[in-house]
Design goal:
Blueprint (H helix, E strand, L loop, with lengths): L1 H18 L11 H12 L7 E2 L2 H7 L8 E8 L7 E8 L2 H22 L3 H8 L2 E5 L2 E7 L3 H10 L4
Antiparallel strand pairs: 1-2, 2-3, 3-5, 4-5
Helix pairs in contact: 1-6, 4-5
């Protein structure tokens, strides 16, 4: 079932990305649509993957809120025994996206270096994906769905 689900999901996300293209061919994916599509596919609701509150953002990602964004999605599981976090950003410039990447990578490094208490969550953080694509920056952390989330996100920017 999982082998069949991923190609269908990837095609759906790719279609979303193609419909988000402007006349110039530049990709401008809707990050909220990506998240909502993935949440529906993976069975996440607002309780299992909650919007990350501002005070938590300040603790997890110091300086991230200082970066102006056109789009911003931050979701996480609010229990320490699970490592599920998504931060998706469309910044105002590629330079801002690089600054965001450094902050997101610091979160990963902090978790790998002792912030994540359980062996399984440390392993999940070791496999986390921090990426930049133009003015977009993302952190994807998911033990069970890392590959699916990352591939679907990357498909938003595929030619």
């Amino acid at each position: 079932m999982k082998k069949l689900l991923f190609p269908v999901l990837a095609a759906l996300v790719l279609m979303m990305g193609l419909t988000a293209c402007g006349e110039t061919g530049d990709k401008h994916p809707d990050l909220t649509s990506y998240y909502n599509s993935m949440a529906e596919t993976l069975g996440w609701d607002n309780e299992s993957m909650a919007e990350t509150p501002d005070d938590v953002l300040d603790i997890y990602y110091p300086g991230l809120k200082d970066i102006e964004t056109k789009q911003f999605v931050a979701r996480s599981v609010m229990i320490s025994a699970a490592a599920e976090e998504l931060v998706l950003m469309e910044c105002n410039s590629p330079e801002d996206a690089q600054a965001a990447k450094a902050i997101l990578q610091q979160r990963v490094d902090d978790q790998v270096d002792g912030g994540a208490w359980y062996p399984s969550t440390i392993e999940t953080w070791e496999n986390a994906q921090v990426s930049v694509n133009g003015s977009y920056a993302a952190l994807i952390v998911s033990g069970e769905h890392q590959e699916e989330l990352t591939e679907a996100y990357n498909a938003l920017f595929a030619s």
